[in-house]
Amino acid sequence: MFLTLEGVEGSGKSTLAQHLAGRLEQRGKTVLHTREPGGCLLGRDIRALLLDSGRAVEPRAELYLFLADRAQHVEEIIRPALGRGEWVICDRYADSTIAYQGAGRGMNSDWLQRLNDDATGGLWPDITFLLDLPEELGLERALRRNAESGLGKTEGRFEAETLAFHHRVRQGFLARAEAFPRRFNILDASLPPENVAEAAWNELIRHGFIEG
After folding, report:
1. What DSSP string describes 29-40?
2. Phi then psi for 119, rounded to 5 degrees?
3. Would you state the pLDDT for residue 96?
4. Can you count the helices (H) and strands (E) in the chain?
5. How many CB atoms lie within 10 A of CB 212?
6. What are the DSSP calls for 57-118, one per residue?
7. Distance in angstroms (rounded) separating the CA atoms of residues 184 and 4
8. Contact by Cβ (8 Å): 69, 46
9. SS3 150
10. 6 DSSP β-pair partners
11. Distance between CA atoms of 12 and 18, rounded to whole angstroms?
């Protein structure tokens, strides 16, 4: 079972991933909680390059770094875990590239779809939760989180983008959800985390991925 979490900065993806992983493990499931970029050894090096707010990265270079991370992550981490029958919960995946580099940076979404089909070897999630909230609120949360954790420089490059950029990214995610309604489930990420988690859990039951 392959589950991905998507959304703008500060939407609560990591919090939801931890909640779902814990609850699934209580049900006796083996769960791999991973993320992009940085879910494999090579990806950790790429993450440092991509998210450093002090580094200027040309958009096409940014794109191909994300794709390199994803190709390695899929083959080294995700496919083997799925092959063992585990649940894989991934904080960001290919939909993020199409939202950020497509809607955000203005790259062609059909081209990005083809690149991601190639990078993933055609592996797409069984279900994707889109944690949706106003970009202003998400950015405020993300900046506060980075300040509290000291990650403002090492992982703050996307948070430093304009509000208009984050608005385009949000619209890009919503467009993906509209294009793939059977895979995407939109959650109201402005709600308290426990409400978001309960809504996600109920969606897993509704889709038949777990028993009620």
Report:
1. --EEEEESS-SS
2. -65, -35
3. 98
4. 9, 5
5. 8
6. --HHHHHHHHHHHHHHHIIIIIHHHHHTT-EEEEES-HHHHIIIIIIIT---HHHHHHHHHH
7. 9
8. yes
9. coil
10. 130
11. 10
The β-bridge relationship of strands 31-35 and 2-7 is unpaired
Q: Find tokens 């580094």 and name the residue.
A: 55
pTM of the model: 0.94
Distance CA 158, CA 37 (A): 13
Tokens of residue 191, six digits: 């709600």
| Coarse DSSP helix, strand, coil percentages of the chain, rounded to the nearest 5 percent | 55, 15, 30
Q: Would residue 92 be called left, alpha or beta, if left means φ above 0 and alpha means ψ between -120 and 50 degrees?
A: left
- What pLDDT, in 10s, does the model give residues 172-197? 999 999 999 999 999 999 999 999 99
Query: For position 152, what pLDDT does the model report?
Result: 52
- Token pair in block for residue 79: 């496919």
- For residue 49, the SS3 value is helix
